[in-house]
# Entry
Amino acid sequence: MQLLLESLFNGVAIGSVLMMAALGLAIVFGLMGVINLAHGELMMLGAYTTYVVQMVFKLPAFQSIYGLYVLVAIPLAFVVSGVVGILLERTVIRRLYGSPLETLLATWGVSLILQQFVRSVPLAHAAGLILALVLGFGLPLVLPHRFFEGARARINRAITWAMSALGGVLLAGVLASQISRIARATSRNVDVTAPKWMRGGIEWMDITFPVPRLVIIVMTIVAVVGVTWFLNRSVWGMRIRAVTQNRSMSDCLGIPTDTVDVLTFGIGSGLAGVAGVAVSLLGSVGPNVGGSYIVGCFMVVVLGGVGNLLGTVLASFAIGLLTDLIGAGRLLTIWPDMPSPLAGTVTFFATTSMAQVLVFALIVVFLQFRPAGLFPQKGRMVEA
Amino acid sequence: MTMLEIRGLNTYYGESHILRDVDLRVLAGEMVCLIGRNGVGKTTLLKSLIGLLKPRSGEIVFEGNGMERQPPHRRARSGIGYVPQGREIIPQLTVEENLMLGMEALPGGLARNHRIDPFVYELFPILQEFLSRKGGDLSGGQQQQLSIARALLGQPKLLLLDEPTEGIQPNIVQDIEAAVQRIIAEKGIGVLLVEQHLHFVRQADRYYAMQRGGIVASGSTSELSQDVVDRFLSV
# Structure
């Protein structure tokens, strides 16, 4: 019983990170048929955001509320990754719409650029740049429409961007002068230390549940519930679902498909950022952290059936549980006196990377029998 | 009063020239029928009007505004309702949600308009029974009714109907014809109809006949001679 619970808990925790990241990937893939290979790097940006927020909260001015930095980092990571995702959509993906292979290549290139970016640009400057982007994209939405119409529209637009750039430079300067550790570029991994309330574990029925993992599970539940609510209940959610299923007709009905694309990409990327916060709580943060999750995310999306939230949820838990079951060698614990050749095999796969190999092999086998995943789309219109 | 005027429209699919110098006009409150055999460019013309295809040259003037550079959602919002061939229901959304989407074309879009006008249930009572069903699970005729109702909820000034009776059982064809008649009588909107059924064609005020991408004949449907019918209708 204890073993079962422990295994279940670990599996759910592993699955949670996968799920948050895969959720964003699934939404974007479902909507635009775009395979975004830079999704892992958007997670990485979320993880670095957590690090920067942590450093800011270490300043004397914020010392008293240091414990809250994780809560601040979550929405910030959402915004940071979301804005970079929107920039990616506007500049690269939009131009390659309808050619999936080129999109694949281009987003892979972007992922390399982003990896090198965090290596060679000081984090303080990166934070400034992102603030400039957020202001530049955000101000036109906040300011009255009149400001961007008529003869002075172009000048006003330029002024907005100039102000945004100024804000970014100011933030970069302040951060760089106050926090020396993010003032210089470094390619070494950095560490996010959990605040005091997140250390240790909660004892229940003789099992210790590590608090960071509990926090991640709660974050995931909130994210899944939030996304489900947004897609099924909100006006924009309905627009997104309509465009996902029939883009040209939605356009003819009066749905602004461009805006839907931007919004969806922003939300999908933002979720990657939140997943990045979770990743930063599990291990050290480096430029390559995204790469280790992206394959798992794709597996979740493929296994769950494209564009299906329930499938994404179940698939990520299944992969999480299997990884834990195989990777931690729990089969041996359950059945200690298994015959020695079998035991040898189980021990061979009882490392994290070998467990992934086996899980992916199992998925490949599964897809031979159900090529469309756990929950393929059904109905009269699918064949058409 | 001229509501829609097309001047010298040329549309291509890749390199093949589909529409050749099409001129056409629809007056407010008028029903105009477009006839012609298969493959002469009737659907292409409607797609160019709603904006799914970009004409290479020519003008589309709707209520005095040039439309040819606008994306489809702008055209829908300025009052063009489109009922495409093949219905194009959003399959995984319920009938109710499909109807709601029709109101995106209203000022403020879905955010300001939640109430489905009961007028569409009067026209097509079957829709009210199936509100919670998935749009993709309806039969062809029901989908056609849904598609027309959806376009009407956007309160268009001009309705583009692309073969609304194609491949649909006769009793529903009658319902649809009656509904279109009623819409024109009660709402006073203009209708541009692509149709093969002679019976339905005769209900229009005027007709345009197309051949090889161009308009070759036009006039009042009361003067529609047997000769024209034989040449341009594939019945």
